[in-house]
Structure formats: structure tokens, C-alpha cells
Amino acid sequence: MSDQQSRLETSIVPLRFVDIVEDIFHAILALTLLAIGAGAFFFSIKRLIETDPFFPTGMIQGINDILFIVIILEILRTVISRFTDGVYQLNKFLIIGVIAAVRHILTVGASLTLQTGKSDEAFERALYELGLNALVVVALVFAIFLSRSAYRNKA
């Protein structure tokens, strides 16, 4: 009898039970994320209709909201993938990070162009945020490249 089999037999909680509880928990998380995504979608549509002026404020807010919903859906896809495949996939988390960083870049860039009378300190802070987020995007894209090339080399 191998060491792993003896550990499985002496476990206090049967692993099958843990797997079932984990599957139920992932299903609840997936349904919750789906509900959050649907709620965010309807709230975004409502806010898009009510925003005055639509151009440019409403359009920028709409793009920001859409990217937020895409992030929620990507997280949902990751949870479902974990639920079906049994593993979290690194590339999906990296893609979520890229989307989030790009969303922040768009938000900061839009605030820079729309707001007038910003202090020099606030302007410099916004530029630092843009630069830092650009570096994050480059680092995450490089990590995606490394991850995919490592996967190709295994296959």
C-alpha cells in the first residue's frame, strides 16, 4: 500500500465528501457571479440612459461599465473552468488582470481629458497611475506569453 493511499484511508473527512462540498460551493459562486453580472448589466444600462450629457461622460462611463462586466464574466468563466476541469488556469487570471489594468488606464485617461482645473499634483499622480498601469499591462502580457510558450513546449 502506498503512502498516499494510507493517508486517504486515515483521513477524518472522506475526500469524496470534500469534493462534493467543493463542487456545491463552486456552483453557488458561479450563480452568484452570474447574478452580479446581470445586476451590473441592468444598472449600467439604466445609468447609460440617465447620464447627461451622454457625450462624452455617458460614453466613457458606459465603456467603464462594460469592461467591469467583462471582468465579472471572465471570473465566472474561471470558476466554471475550475468546476469542470478541477484546476484554476493561470492564463485566465492574467487576462482578467490585463482587462482590469486597461479599464483603469481608460478611466484615468478619461478623467484627465474631461476634468479641467486639475492641480499639478493631481495631474502628476494621474500620469504616474497611467505609467504604472501601462507597466502592469506589459508585465501581464509578457507573463501570458511565457505561460503559453511553456505550455506549447510541454505539448
Task: Describe the protein's topology.
Elements: H1 3-9, H2 15-50, H3 54-85, H4 90-114, H5 120-154
Helix pairs in contact: 2-3, 3-4, 4-5
- Give the tally of β-strands: 0
Tally of domains? 2
Oligomer: single chain
Poorly predicted spans: none
If you had to describe this structure to a student in words, what would you say it looks like?
With 155 residues, this protein is mostly helical. The protein has two domains: 1-86; 89-155. Helices cover 87% and strands 0% of the residues. It has five helices and no strands. Helix 2 (15-50) runs antiparallel to helix 3. The chain is extended and about 70 Å long.
How would you sum up this structure in a few lines?
The chain is an all-alpha fold and 155 residues long. The protein is 87% helix and 0% strand. It has helices at 3-9, 15-50, 54-85, 90-114, 120-154.
Primary descriptors:
2 domains, extended, 155 residues, mainly alpha
